[in-house]
Amino acid sequence: MSGGGNTAYGRKSFQRSKAHFTDRITADGRDGWPVEAGRYRLVVSRACPWASRAVISRRLLGLEDALSMAIADPIQDDRSWRFTLDPDDRDPVLGIRFLSEAYDRRETDYPGGVSVPALVDVPSGELVTNDYQRITLDLATEWTALHRDGAPDLYPEALRDEIDAVMADVFEDVNNGVYRAGFATGQEEYEGACARLFRRLELLAERLSGQRYLVGDTITEADIRLFTTLVRFDAVYHGHFKCNRWKLTENQVLWAYARDLYQTPGFGDTVDFDHIKRHYYRVHRGINPTGIVPLGPDLSGWLTPHGREELGGRPFGDGTPPGPVPQTEEVPAQGRP
Using CB atoms within 10 A as the burial measure, which of 185, 219, 281, 293 is most buried? Predict the structure, then answer.
């Protein structure tokens, strides 16, 4: 999710820009960026679904000590994501006020938007990558030497083709589909995106009616990617983005599936509904000119029993759940149900 002119949202047709910086941090360091504990900082916004994938993966894999995390203010301004949640409005590790400073150190006058998630090289202060599609896959496969004991395999080799196929459909129609509907500038464009979104959600509900997770019997990268859209659905996409044919809570299968994941350590404990709502309703001034943030929806349902255990499945496979959230990364009370 990029920073940019806040009043422009909803005034021009939506086009998801490709990641501009696609270097990879790998075990063999082939792009010049070897995996190394403490060397990199993950910059995220808890509001952003693309960044939330990385937050969840990092926690499930137990990379908190090896890869530090900076949390940006959910309200970015036209200069980009900012570190106004930190003392002196600066990230304490990188020493910068805006994420754009790390982009500038990498490439002066870079023409694209400043997006999260971003991985920054701490010694040089340079952005390494903003490739949101690749970052989590590399955390799962290239960072294995630094995974916690009992870390799950989020991208098992034997299932990768199926995981990739499911993720491609989810990306096109769901992850990106809500944005295409929400930022549409014409009726036809909106209706097309909305129809595709709900058709895909119905197909996913069908798939999940007889199995606990999207691919195989354990949590994979595919579940993380669907979850980050579902958890925002009723809070922002249903009203703000007009994806309102039905609410998540009205779809028995998807609502139970989303609650199952939310209640799994590593998922719900990374979600900040306060950041999510304030970001979408206050930043997208082209859609919501008043900047008023709605009081609803009621979040208490996220903690109710989901009954999905009866489908079997082993959330972490042969692994174990992650430990408690580090104290400095706990979601404040106002962001939780």
Answer: 219
pLDDT of 307 > 80? The answer is yes
pLDDT tens by residue, 228-287 = 999 999 999 999 999 999 999 999 999 999 999 999 999 999 999 999 999 999 999 999
Contact 62, 139 (CB under 8 A): no
Listed in sequence order, the residues at least 6 apart from 115 whose beta carbon sits closer than 8 Å to its beta carbon are: 1, 2, 3, 17, 19, 50, 130, 132
Instruction: Give the whole-angstrom CA distance, residue 61 versus residue 153.
Output: 8
Q: Are 152 and 218 within 8 A, CB to CB?
A: yes
Taken in order 323, 324, 325, 328, the sign of the CA dihedral is: negative
Q: Is 48 a catalytic residue?
A: yes
- Tell whether the torsion through CA atoms of 219, 221, 226 and 232 is positive or negative: positive
Catalytic residue among 40, 132, 155, 179, which?
A: 179
The residue type found at 302 is W
Going by their DSSP bridges, the two strands 126-129 and 68-71 should be labelled as unpaired
What pTM did the predictor assign? 0.95
Cα(336)–Cα(16) distance, integer angstroms: 29
Cβ atoms < 10 Å from Cβ of 203: 12
Q: Which residue in the list 9, 40, 48, 243 is annotated as catalytic? A: 48
Active-site annotation holds for 243: no
The C-alpha angle 243, 55, 244, rounded to 5 degrees, equals: 5
Q: Name, in order, each residue with C-beta under 8 angstroms of 327's C-beta and a sequence gap of 6 or more.
A: none
CA 23/CA 34 separation, integer angstroms:
11
